[in-house]
Fold this protein.
Amino acid sequence: MHERLMGSSLDPDSSSPQASAEDLNIALEQMVRYVRRSATAGGLSTAASSALGRLGREGPQRLTELARAENVSQPNMTQLVTRMERAGLVRRTADRTDGRGVLVEATDTGLEVFRQRRAERARALGRLVGELSEAERHAVRIALPALARAIAENHPNAGTETSGEIRK
């Protein structure tokens, strides 16, 4: 990360104290990749982890809703759900509001994998923040919740990842 940011406004030795949106985006992408890679429980792909997380936070969903929310095609989501079902992470159930519909929901095993992965990511972020100076740690503890609040208040459909609730 340091090599990529040298000479940028995020470089601590730079004379400019302001970070450009591009610099912040690069730093955010690197942080997200680092934290995501730290989650290994269940050996899930990024797509499976994301879908399982959504089901854990938001509860059962129709396959079409899940595909739309995850920005993948319905055939791809069907394949992913089938693989996750074989692994015991999700199950399909009848939609009580529409007898023709089928819902996908996380199983107890799936919710446990989701909890483990979330804990792994939290520990990775904690280690990363622990490498910062006290002033930097303070800035992160203020900035990240402020950004999450801005998303929740101004972009509610984009902020579903910020909820800590796991549905059962």
About this structure: The longest helix spans residues 108-130. Strands lie at 61-62, 90-94, 102-106. The CA atoms of residues 4 and 86 lie 42 Å apart.
